[in-house]
Amino acid sequence: MIRRLHVRGWRAFEKLDLELNDGVTFVIAENGIGKTSLVEAAAWGLYGDLTDVDARAARRAGSSIAAVELELELPDGRTLSIERQVDDRTQSMRAELDASRLGDEDVAGVLAEAFGASREFLSKTTLIPSRAVAEQAIGSFELRAHLSHVFGVDSLESAAEQLRRMHADAEAAAKKMRQAARRAAKDLSGLRAALSVAETAEAQANAALAEARVTLDAAERGLGEAQEHEKAVARAATARRAFAELVDASRQVLQLRPKMRVEHPADLAVLLDQAESAAADGVDDLRRDAASVAGTLEAVRTAAAQLETAGAQCPVCRRELSAEDVAHATSAHSEDMNRLSAREQEFAGMIKSASARLDELRVLQRQAVRLPEIDDVAHDQAPDVAGATAAVREARAAVEAAMEGGAEARTRRSTLSNELADEERAARETHEAFLAHRREAVTAITSQVMHEAAETILSERIDPLATEVRHRWKRVFGERGLLQLRSDGELVLVRGIHEIPFAQFSSGEKVVALLATRLLVLGASTRASFVWLDEPLEHLDPPNRRLIASLLTVAGQHVRQILITTFEEPLARRLASTGDIRLQYVRSAEW
């Protein structure tokens, strides 16, 4: 039962602290004061979103949060504390049991274990809003699921449902097998023999292809060797031709005798190198001789110049020279200069000619160095490139023919293999079809038996409850129809041959049906010890109102806590005067 309720920022309540006791309590207030808000706050605090209460919309104007705290005494005496808060963006929950923090799923498990019913079932039976009369989704509750769990039928129904699914699968498999089953199997031994022959033919074709590829590889290697030999011969001929041309060009420069033969490029390179060295030495000798002549010429010119400026004195001994001596010396200097100038010009011509020959030798030397190597190839055996090409062409044709033969053999073997697989699969499918039909029959019968057993158990368990519901209905309405509680939890009213669904009950009939079934189911199939009812008397006429109020007070002898909101103060006072009933007044938004 709920021992304490604390509310902050919830609709009309800025702050509310409510201590609750055992027995029956009437919460009395005028309409609009907050009776329904009180029940909704307790429901949301205990069950959260299962109540369909919009906690964010219930936040009091001007409050930053709406908060509900409650303490629930469990049947074993322990206290479960729950606090829920909501603001503009977030919603939080805090719960404790024996100083241990609990999550939302932990709270659900504690409630189910303590009260012997799921939290979903308790949310529709312990805190009943006034709109349950008008809204079928709230007025009905999952009695079948609850009783199935209480009486252990849910495991039986789960097994029956699993068998039903197995039956559906077996039925689909059987249908598929029936569609897949084809003609009787052929002679599988004949197919296997034909497949063996085809596999042998494929192996032979693969061997022939491998042999043809070996022949092709050999032919391609022969063609490559012939082509390479042909290229080597061409290179050697080109090298010999270049060598012969260079020898011819070098003969005149080297002044070789006509009968002298040069057999190898290296020999020619040696001759050219030696000739180049000799020519370079000759050019150096000529340049030294030319330099000596040039020096002598310069000395004579200097002496002649000094003679002209000496003033009739010997430039060496400083003795006086006669005119005859001067004339004789001048004539001698002139003859020397003419002779030396002619000699200088002669050396210049010789140096030019020798340098030109040296340049020619150097050019020939560079050409000799760059001569290609003359391969030592056989000239008497011309490579048979045409024959090698024909051999490759023939080998390739043989490979293509072997590939075609192998492809035909593989196709034949694959066709027979697929045909054999189809026939073997057909044989398996025939056997599987038999098994599928057997599974279909077994699962169908077993599922039907389990469903019928579950229905029988539930009917046997619900029948006493349904009888008591009819009895309580008759105490209120007499002969105004017969109220029936079905095994699925639905309520119908039987009048003659007609069945009236719950949605078409009058407001008073809905109130009586809801109270009768919930109080009875709670007492008979759960350990829940509290029921809160929001304005259950407002939909009844005065006689029935007094009767229901009396029934509720009597129910308080079996349920530890019953809380009823109402504005019927005179009726509540009369009932309180007859028994252990407390009154709580709501005068304004403050308690």
Kindly describe this structure.
The chain has 2 domains: 2-142 and 489-586, Rossmann fold (3-Layer(aba) Sandwich), CATH 3.40.50.300; 169-264 and 374-462, no CATH class. Helix content is 61%, strand content 14%. It has helices at 35-47, 104-115, 119-123, 136-139, 143-150, 153-180, 188-254, 265-309, 323-369, 385-477, 507-525, 542-555, 569-576; strands at 2-10, 13-19, 23-29, 66-73, 79-86, 91-97, 100-102, 127-128, 482-485, 491-495, 498-501, 530-534, 561-566, 581-586. The strands form 3 sheets. The chain has a 6-stranded antiparallel β-sheet with strand order 2-1-4-5-6-7. The protein has a 5-stranded parallel β-sheet with strand order 8-12-13-3-14, sandwiched between helices. Helix 7 runs antiparallel to helix 9 (323-369) and helix 8 (265-309) runs antiparallel to helix 9 (323-369).
**Category by helix and strand content:** alpha/beta
Proportion in β-strands: 5-15%
Give the H and E element order.
EEEHEEEEHHEHHHHHHHEEEHEHEHE
**Oligomeric description of these chains:** single chain
> Roughly how many Å is the radius of gyration?
64 Å
CATH H-tier superfamily of the largest domain: P-loop containing nucleotide triphosphate hydrolases
Question: Any idea of the CATH class of the largest domain?
Answer: Alpha Beta
Distance between the termini: 21 Å
Number of strands: 14
Write the layout of secondary structure elements.
Blueprint: E1 2-10, E2 13-19, E3 23-29, H1 35-47, E4 66-73, E5 79-86, E6 91-97, E7 100-102, H2 104-115, H3 119-123, E8 127-128, H4 136-139, H5 143-150, H6 153-180, H7 188-254, H8 265-309, H9 323-369, H10 385-477, E9 482-485, E10 491-495, E11 498-501, H11 507-525, E12 530-534, H12 542-555, E13 561-566, H13 569-576, E14 581-586
Parallel strand pairs: 3-13, 3-14, 8-12, 12-13
Antiparallel strand pairs: 1-2, 1-4, 4-5, 5-6, 6-7, 9-10, 10-11
Helix pairs in contact: 5-6, 6-10, 7-8, 7-9, 7-10, 8-9, 10-11
